[in-house]
Amino acid sequence: MNATRPLDGITVVSVEHAIAAPFCTRHLADLGARVIKVERPGSGDFARAYDDRARGLASHFVWVNRSKESLALDLKSPANRDKLVKLLMRSDVFVQNLAPGAAERLGLGYEALSKLNPRLIVCDISGYGENGPYSYKKAYDLLIQSEAGFLSVTGTDAQPAKSGCSIADISAGMYAYSTILAALIQRQRTGKGTRIEVSMLETMAEWMSFPLYYALDGSPPPVRAGASHASIFPYGPFAAGDGRVVMIGIQNEREWESFCNNVLQNRDLKSDPRFDNNMKRSNARAKLTEIIVSAFAALTAQEVIERLEAADIANAEVRNMNQVWEHPQLKARNRWVNVESPVGPLPALLPPALPSDFSPRMGAVPRVGEHNSAILAELGE
User: Fold this and answer.
1) Quick check: helix, strand or coil at residue 330?
2) Residue 296 is part of which domain span?
3) Residues 258, 196: one domain?
4) Domain CATH code at residue 290
5) Which of 49, 38, 100, 45 lies closest to 75, judged by CA?
6) Are residues 310 and 352 in the same domain?
7) Do 199 and 52 share a structural domain?
8) Residues near 71 by Cβ (< 8 Å), separated by ≥ 6?
9) Which residues does 18 contact at the CB level (< 8 Å), separation at least 6?
10) Full-prediction pTM beyond 0.85?
11) Rounded to whole angstroms, what are the CA distances from 339 to 33, 57, 214, 324?
12) For the chain, which end, N or C, has fewer CB atoms within 10 Å of the first or last residue's CB respectively?
């Protein structure tokens, strides 16, 4: 396997906190970039204090901050801002998700920095973008889930439900990551850097395009269907007799027939006029759920899955976090490795979707200011 990585030799500086920007820059580090994370002296990124569930470290922080160098600088100090600018003059990418307008007030906006380093790619991540009536609103993940309509199509009729992970932050981080890669390719052609603006609202609105089009021209939006599909049925979770839950996905009439014949073992059901097309099945969810759960009551989840596999019906087990840690597929594909941290080795999932000819960087999770001496020495400070 080739020892070089695609972003070897690329330096990324990030004034970042929480998830969106750190998620972006960690992926750049995976590909070999040197990522210097600028933090507040003492406390550092406030995500370090979210919890202590990762053997004393914060779960969010461990997830998105491996393979980085921590530089602790008080950016209220003009001298420290000068050090950061000096660092940016020799860097390739600058990522920031400070409060709206803060980077410009600190002299860290694209217009100022590009005059000092025309090759610099600057990525500004914010909640709502730099202009418009919402531009100066605070934006956290759940707030953007709300504004983008995500909560309107999740949960049940009784109550909406947020995503169980930071989906708005993740969407912004992924668009920032992919667009920075595109900007690096463009810079090879032009020799010039550029500015990238990423709005969390806009990235989540893009991800909401299916329900948006579904409700085009004032049409009724997708119904809140809990863990079931909003418009296809049966496509959702069903309890087996042992209390475990199996997720089933029926996509067409051929699969519905096989499901009735081979899984439910009820050949008459496939032609029952209440259920003989998807729209009817979707409208009769309660009754059909009752029939399916009754048929599963005498079976364990594993027995249900075996029938579904034999019938070539898509299925999955609804797993909890402990079961995902032990997932046989992830283990079989050797997806877990250890990374170093201030509390010792921690398990980490290898990044997905990487070419086969290089290994991703899987470096340590840093302490606050761990790399100050080395980085400042490089700058002659």
Assistant:
1) helix
2) 235-317
3) no
4) 3.30.1540.10
5) 38
6) no
7) yes
8) 36, 37, 38, 39, 87, 369, 371, 372, 375, 376
9) 45, 46, 47, 60, 97, 140, 169
10) yes
11) 17, 13, 44, 19
12) N
